[in-house]
Amino acid sequence: PGAAPAAAEQTLLVGNLESRVREEILYELFLQAGPLTKVMICEDKEGKPQSFGYVCFKHKVSVPYAKALLDGICLYGRPITVQYWRGSSAPSYPLCLLMNLLLSNKAVDQHTQPTSSHFLLAREDGSEVCFT
User: Fold this and answer.
1) pTM for the whole thing?
2) Which residues contact 106 (CB under 8 A, 6 or more apart)?
3) Degrees (nearest 5) of the Cα angle 16, 127, 25?
4) Distance between CA atoms of 10 and 22, rounded to whole angstroms?
5) Where does the source fall among the domains of life (predicted)?
6) DSSP string covering the chain, please?
7) Section 60-86 average pLDDT
8) pLDDT tens, residue by residue, 15-47
């Protein structure tokens, strides 16, 4: 098991992960919200992946954006949970700012290059999010 993330305010806890989810998948998914510094799925004593991990962002502003965008997204048929890391508190960004970020996609770093042309993700409530 790895050490706890260095900066709680730049970290999200990701839970309810299906056993086939790998760090590379989480990296590609959360990269849509901004540049990342680390992605880790926690392991048990035998080295088997557990159903949770964490994602660390380069910029604090990416954290609430990622939570708003990705909480409830289904991976391998299971909705993931995205929570602020313990010891951190939800940043006090107004909801309208977060919605503008979601709609305009301006929180994604302009230097980030997507590795695939697009993909569609389904939320637990049946809505869909398309990343291009």
Assistant:
1) 0.64
2) 100
3) 40
4) 21
5) Eukaryota
6) -PPPPS-GGGEEEEES--TT--HHHHHHHHGGGS-EEEEEEEE-TTS-EEEEEEEEESSTTHHHHHHHHHTTBEETTEE-EEEEPTT-------HHHHHHHHHH-TTS-TT---SSS-EEEEBTTS-EEEE-
7) 94
8) 999 999 999 999 999 999 999 999 999 998 998
